[in-house]
Automatic annotation (TrEMBL):
Keyword Ubl conjugation: no
The keyword Repeat appears for this protein: no
GO MF term set: ligase activity
Species whose genome carries this gene: Metarhizobium album
InterPro entries: aa-tRNA-synth_II/BPL/LPL
Name recorded for this polypeptide: Amino acid--[acyl-carrier-protein] ligase
Entry keywords, A to Z: Ligase
Length: 302
């Protein structure tokens, strides 16, 4: 924990992150953003020739889609909803009185039809399903979005609002598992290009409760999720900066994603935690990009 706080304080002092008074909610400097933009260009160089369809969703998604996804059943501890005042003038008077008295005014808020996006790919599945059957070659999509997960922490690599870049593949089992392996290989190559030491290990999502522990064990047993780990604040507990996920036909069944022959599509995705990768670069190469090794700067900025 001390190493996490120390690194976070250094990031604040350097002006790379900006303290907002809420753990895990930070402003970013121009230099921090420039590193993320440069790394995204590196992603494009590795994946651009694959011909993925680029789609950019906002950081909020349809609450009905969110409910159907099952996210609330598996990860209620991470979910965030958008609430707004929906009352009349009398309710407004009551709200202001509550605020003036220092009370909890949030009771006057009601849930809207928007929830905060938990992962960049979640709005994609219903969108593609509405188009009809996938073409013979399946589907490949390039996404980027701010995402929300409610896990406040002094670890700068565990932010509540962060950006996720994803490639999502839809097709046959062989098609999508080949896609996942290709990106696991690319991920190691990319991190080597920017001077970061990594390891890839089997992982699981943070499912909630007793039933969640069974789901997590099943996920690990079937090697459905791998993570690319980089030491950021701890060498003993490196940070997951990329994930490689095979969903089998779970999303295909849930959303009615069909291949050209009418069979259910399998899906897989690769996710880049953009803030985490930037933090890994600053942790390993220093807080001033001008002092980074020449080969790292060349890989990022040419």
């Amino acid at each position: 924990m001390d190493m996490q706080v120390s690194f976070l304080d250094r990031l604040f002092e350097a002006g790379l992150l900006i303290d907002t008074g809420v753990e895990g909610l930070y402003g970013r400097s121009g230099q921090f953003e420039d590193v993320i933009a440069a790394f995204e260009r590196l992603i494009d160089r590795f994946g651009g020739a694959d011909g993925a369809e680029a789609i950019r969703f906002p950081p909020g998604m349809n609450r009905a889609y969110f409910e159907k996804s099952g996210y609330m059943k598996s990860f209620p501890q991470l979910a965030g909803t958008v609430h707004s005042f929906c009352g009349c003038e009398l309710d407004h008077v009551s709200l202001m009185k509550c605020m003036d008295e220092g009370g909890d005014w949030t009771g006057e808020q009601k849930a809207t039809d928007i929830v905060l996006t938990p992962a960049a790919c979640y709005p994609l599945y219903p969108t593609v399903a509405k188009r009809g059957r996938l073409p013979a070659e399946g589907g490949l999509y390039d996404l980027q979005s701010y995402c929300f997960r409610h896990e406040p922490s002094t670890d700068p690599a565990r932010q509540q609002l962060f950006r996720m870049r994803e490639y999502v593949c839809m097709g046959t089992q062989d098609h999508v598992t080949d896609f996942r392996q290709r990106w696991m290989d690319r991920g190691v190559q990319m991190m080597d290009a920017v001077g970061l030491t990594v390891e890839i290990d089997v992982a699981n999502d943070p499912f909630f409760g007793r039933a969640g522990r069974m789901l997590a064990n099943n996920q690990r047993d079937q090697n459905l999720k791998f993570e690319l780990l980089i030491p950021v604040t701890s060498a003993a507990k490196p940070t997951a900066c990329m994930s490689f996920n095979y969903h089998q036909d779970a999303f295909g069944t849930k959303w009615g994603l069909e291949l050209e022959d009418g069979s259910t599509a399998h899906t897989a995705c690769v996710g880049f935690g953009l803030e985490r990768i930037a933090l890994a670069l600053f942790a390993h190469h220093g807080l001033d990009v001008k002092d980074w090794p020449a080969h790292v700067r060349k890989a990022l900025w040419g």
